[in-house]
Each structure stands twice: as C-alpha cells, then as structure tokens.
C-alpha cells in the first residue's frame, strides 16, 4: 500500500446509483493506473494516465465508467449508473519513473452493488 | 488463449516445504517479469522483478525465467505460515513508440502454508 491512498475502503450501493472512487498518490509518480479485481477475471487494467493524461482506456468496460486525473495528486473513477456486475475490488496503482514498470498498489476499494 | 496463464490453486503445503509457483505466457514481446504477493483484503505488493532469462534470488525466494519456453517460476524455500497469500505473476512489453509499460497479470495462485 506504499504511496497510495484510496477512499472509500468499502462502498455498498444500490443498482442505478452513481459511485465515485478516489485515489490519492502520496509519493512521486509519473503514471497512475486503475484496476478491477474479481475472482472470475482476476486483475484487469481499466485505464492509465501518464503525467495526468489518459493514455489507454481500452479496458474501461462501458460508457458507464469514466476516470479523471485533474492533477498529479488526485484521480477519480466514476460509475454511473452502477450495476451488480460492477461489484469488485478496485485498485489504484502508481509507477514512480519513466524507466521502470514496477507498480505500487493502494489498498483497494471493495464495491458492492445490490 | 489468454496472454498469461496461472494455475489458481489453491495450494496447501506444510511449514518448511519448498513451494513452486508457475506462469506461462504467449506474447513473445514480454520482456519484464514480476511476482506480486497479495495478502487477503490488501493490495498486491511487488515481491520479485526480473528482466533476463535465468534465476534471481532474494532470501528465501527465487524467480526463474525461461524465455525460450515462455515460462516463469517462483520458488519459496522453507515456507512459513506468513507466506500464506495469493501470488500473482505479471509481465510487460514496451509499447511501440514510447516508454509506457502496461502490466498483464496472471489470475493468481492462492497459497496456504500450514504450521
């Protein structure tokens, strides 16, 4: 969990509601990644940013998902409207330099959509 | 065929056993190989990182890469109950035209070391 704060840690919501997940890197980085983890599909990359610019959002499952990174210290992943199949653990991760591909993960947000 | 295949287990061993965890991959462009350890209800944490074929040792852990066979392994010697976790392999290939590295993960192997 080094260097990344995620909130909330747990979220329970009802189908159709908007959900916003937050990520706050607390140490230097140049890339930020959003992942989703489920038992069935494992850890899947949703989107990543380089220097706050979205580079690859091909993993975003549908238009219901959107992500922003307004500055180097904050990113959000929004689901609107949420569906039960969105239930998963969502991780934010950072990469600390352009010449390395090791990533450091936050503690995750466990989302349950009823 | 998935790019990275990893047996999900579960794998249960007695304390002190040697553990072998494996992944196979299909993408020849993968250059960098990592093992992450994930404790229950925590984020994955980097355990080992290798680039070339061969072995890399760090304490009780040894990572092995065989690029010709597209096969990587993680060995844990003298396993301890504290090693009980899910182990995920990950690999990356440099994207064309830039220095962006996306990681492709295996689904993870759940390991339990029994005292």
Helix and strand arrangement:
The complex is a heterodimer of chains A (114) and B (115).
Chain A: E1 4-7, E2 10-13, E3 19-25, E4 31-38, E5 42-50, E6 53-56, E7 65-71, E8 74-79, E9 88-95, E10 103-105, E11 109-113
Parallel strand pairs in A: 2-11
Antiparallel strand pairs in A: 1-3, 3-8, 4-5, 4-9, 5-6, 7-8, 9-10, 9-11
Chain B: E1 4-6, E2 11-14, E3 19-25, E4 32-38, E5 45-50, E6 54-58, E7 61-66, E8 71-76, E9 85-94, E10 101-105, E11 109-114
Parallel strand pairs in B: 2-11
Antiparallel strand pairs in B: 1-3, 3-8, 4-5, 4-9, 6-7, 7-8, 9-10, 9-11
Brief rundown of the structure:
The complex is a heterodimer of chains A (114) and B (115). Chain A has 114 residues and is mainly β.
Report the end-to-end length of chain B measured between terminal Cα atoms. 38 Å
Q: Report the uncertain regions of chain B.
A: none
Q: Return the string of H and E elements of chain A.
A: EEEEEEEEEEE
Give the percentage of residues in beta strands of chain B: over 45%
Given the C-alpha coordinates, what overall shape of chain A results?
A: globular
Helicity range of the residues of chain A? Answer: under 10%
Uncertain segments of chain A of ≥5 residues (pLDDT<50)?
none
Total number of helical segments of chain B? 0
> Can you count the helices of chain A?
0
Strand content of chain A: over 45%
Describe the global form of chain B.
globular
Please give the oligomerization state of what you see: heterodimer
Chain-averaged pLDDT of chain A: 91
Give the overall average pLDDT of chain B: 91
Which class of secondary structure composition applies to the elements of chain B?
mainly beta
Report the C-alpha radius of gyration of chain B, rounded.
Answer: 14 Å
Main pleated-sheet profile of chain A: 7 strands, mixed
Radius of gyration of chain A: 13 Å
| Helical residue percent band of chain B | under 10%
Could you give the order of the helices and strands of chain B?
A: EEEEEEEEEEE
